[in-house]
Amino acid sequence: MPNCFLISFFVALSYLVGVLNASIGDSNPHYKSCVEQCEKTGCIGGRCFQQCRFFSDGVSVDGPQYMQEPLYLQWKQFDCPSECKYHCMLDREKEREMLGLEPVKYHGKWPFKRVFGIQEPTSVLFSVCNLAMHFYGWLSFFILLHYKLPLRPKDRKPYYEYTGLWHVYGILAMNAWFWSVVFHFRDVDLTEKLDYSSAVALLGYCFIMSILRAFSVRDEAARVMVAAPLIAFVTTHILYLNFYKFDYGLNMKVCVLMGVAQLVIWIVWGGLTRHPSRRKLWVVTVGSALAMLLELYDFPPYKGFIDAHALWHAATIPLTYLWWSFLKDDAKFRTTNLIKKVK
Ligand SMILES: [Zn+2]
């Protein structure tokens, strides 16, 4: 198993080198002049874009007075270049396809075809499925603990010591998938930051949970001692990304580090423990490691729709189901043990 992680580390490193390089697509002179021309005139060839109609030297050229609100103008100003880049990219890709060439990246991203204005429809679809799966998992976990399993007689609270912590996990996971849906729907600065920040927060929290559960940290003070430095680290990282520098390379390193660390913890714990559901844990951890390789092995979108990232999102759907199933088993297992102890 350690070999597997070594491989994923090296793949991650080679991927980082790729990320740091400028994209081939947007450095092409034809593409550059197409975008420049389009932003100036609002048209490519015979096609003109609504988003670009309001601008000529930064002053609105037509449209009624109410449409000249600053916010509206800002939106248009920001949307015209994105529209131009998108259509110039499609044109370039069509030319490349006719020459029998492989797709290339533009501004660090693969060329995706929009469907009803949705930028990456397959990633949106799979993100929605993940969100729904987490909601189902969390809801069934909630019902199990608060309505099906016996409660402590003195305070009517669940016996399971990690109940509250897994509730927080469920909320953070649903939050992360919600912003993933929004980001893949439309990739702009704000949605990208919200998606990345939520994902890092979730990953950091999962890392804390892996330590707390695998080492059976049940004492409140000890939990705070473990969580505080990690929360401080993750918070600083998120603030750095949002308010100082949005560094993809650094973020990738932080995510791979936290991701691999928690996988190692779960796998080692899964190997040592006599937990009745350890097989589910193995499947989830090995599956997550393989899914991570998929994310790191970054191939272009098939037919402009399905890329490695979308497949990664698809792979996490069954893993999410199994993960919540493991958590429910864990709650049952701990509750039975604790009741036995009380008796
Ligand atoms: Zn995504």
From TrEMBL:
Membrane topology category: Multi-pass membrane protein
Gene Ontology CC entries for this record: endoplasmic reticulum membrane; Golgi membrane
Secretion signal span: 1-22
Compartment annotation: Endomembrane system; Golgi apparatus membrane
Residues that span the membrane, as ranges: 124-147, 159-182, 194-212, 224-244, 250-269, 281-297, 309-327
UniProt keyword Repeat, yes or no: no
UniProt-listed GO biological process terms: GPI anchor biosynthetic process
UniProt keyword terms in alphabetical order: Golgi apparatus, GPI-anchor biosynthesis, Membrane, Signal, Transmembrane, Transmembrane helix
Free-text function comment from the UniProt entry: Involved in the lipid remodeling steps of GPI-anchor maturation.
Protein family per UniProt: Belongs to the PGAP3 family.
Record's protein name: Post-GPI attachment to proteins factor 3
Taxonomic source organism: Macleaya cordata
Lineage: Eukaryota, Viridiplantae, Streptophyta, Embryophyta, Tracheophyta
